[in-house]
Design goal:
The chain is mainly α and 357 residues long. It folds into two domains: 5-288, Orthogonal Bundle (Fic-like fold), CATH 1.10.3290; 295-353, Winged helix-like DNA-binding domain superfamily/Winged helix DNA-binding domain (Arc Repressor Mutant, subunit A, Orthogonal Bundle). It is built from 14 helices and four strands. The chain has helices at 12-37, 43-61, 68-76, 86-104, 112-122, 164-181, 186-200, 207-221, 232-238, 240-251, 262-288, 295-307, 312-318, 324-336, and strands at 142-147, 151-157, 340-343, 350-353. The strands form two sheets. Strands 1-2 form a two-stranded antiparallel sheet. It has a two-stranded antiparallel sheet with strand order 3-4. Helix 4 (86-104) packs parallel to helix 8 (207-221).
């Protein structure tokens, strides 16, 4: 029997939980993909927030110390900032790799070469990792959990160095074949792939971060587009103990007949389902606020609140640095979102705040 499929031989109760979770996730997937197809105005801000949270959480899981606010500041000033610390180097490497996946996921195949390229890109700025980035490990390593206060704990030993290449080749081949056959639900295939990747631990460093990037890549490739707008990494950070325990539960019997990954699969699916609930709540909150306003639009709104009613010419006199066409677009956008109202027509049109919002 296929050694990977054997690990999916769950009991009846576990199978029922798996089926229920997959059904819930897929239902939301269909709903969200319709929302995204409309090029909704809230998506840009949701994606920006999720990106910062993902970078922060994934690097902190591995021992990073930068807060989400510090990461946002770093990203805003990256062109003029020298990446002096390891934390900064890891953050920018993760950011660039995540953006690469967002922009090209449909063109990136699951292959040994591309996995190595993503690893190289992830550690691009990490001076300490320059000798081994993009290359499988040549020294034995272990999975180490990092807890608050600098406490570290070895979770489990990983695949021996001389077996890494063959194990990775077999895993990648199997995963692609299963996706092609479409006999197993893609979420189950992804769950197995990530578990096996973490168990093999093919690189000297960066395996945890890369596993989360590969999770995003594979989910996007199978149309789970909502993962761009809410952070899976953040949820893992908040349930880190449960995350490691789920991995350990299977790893304690690694490569034995009784190796059982049901706890990991249920963790993976349950957190993915929780992710859909988080996004639903965030999206509803954005809608209830009447849309996302950028800094310029917020300034226009504040000025209107203090001086209403105002004509377009009044805005132009106050915001001399903003092109008149941009002002018109901003006002039309806020009107569409029912943040403001217009009264009158033509040059006599005045704008006021919509009191119902």
């Amino acid at each position: 029997m296929d050694k990977y499929l054997k690990k999916l031989n769950f009991d009846f109760r576990t199978n029922q939980k798996v089926l229920k979770l997959i059904s819930q996730i897929d239902a939301y997937k269909g709903k969200w993909n319709i929302i995204e197809a409309r090029e909704n105005i809230y998506l840009k801000e949701l994606k920006r927030i999720a990106t910062i949270e993902s970078i922060g959480s994934s690097t902190r899981i591995e021992g990073g110390t930068l807060t989400d606010h510090e990461i946002e500041e770093l990203l805003n000033n990256v062109e003029i900032t020298k990446l002096e610390t390891r934390d900064q180097q890891e953050v920018i490497g993760y950011y660039e790799t995540l953006e690469l996946i967002y922009e090209n996921y449909d063109k990136i195949p699951l292959s040994e070469n591309y996995i190595k390229q993503l690893h190289q890109n992830l550690l691009k700025y990490s001076e300490k990792d320059s000798r081994h980035r993009g290359k499988y490990k040549t020294l034995s390593n272990k999975v180490v959990a990092r807890y608050p206060g600098g406490v570290q704990k070895v979770i489990f030993n990983t695949t021996d160095v001389y077996l890494v290449e063959s194990e990775m080749n077999h895993l990648i081949t199997w995963t692609n074949e299963q996706f092609e056959k479409a006999e197993i639900h893609p979420l189950m295939i992804i769950a197995i792939f990530i578990y096996e990747f973490l168990s093999i631990h093919p690189f000297q460093d960066g395996n945890g971060r890369l596993s989360r990037l590969l999770t995003t890549l594979l989910l996007l490739k199978h149309d789970y587009l909502f993962v761009q707008y809410v952070s899976f990494e953040n949820l893992i950070e908040k349930t880190k103990k449960e995350y490691y325990e789920a991995l350990m539960d299977g790893q304690k019997n690694r490569n034995k007949d009784n190796e059982n990954i049901s706890k990991w699969v249920l963790y993976f699916l349950d957190k993915l389902n929780t992710l859909t609930q988080r996004l639903e709540a965030k999206y509803d909150l954005f809608k209830s606020k009447g849309g996302y306003l950028n800094e310029r639009q917020k300034a226009l709104k504040d000025y209107l609140e203090k001086n209403q009613p105002l004509k377009i010419s009044d805005f132009a006199k106050r915001f001399t640095h903003v092109n008149i066409n941009t002002l018109k677009k901003d006002l039309q956008y806020m009107k569409k979102e029912q943040i403001i109202q217009s009264i009158g027509k033509g040059k006599g049109t005045v704008y006021v705040i919509n009191k119902e919002k």
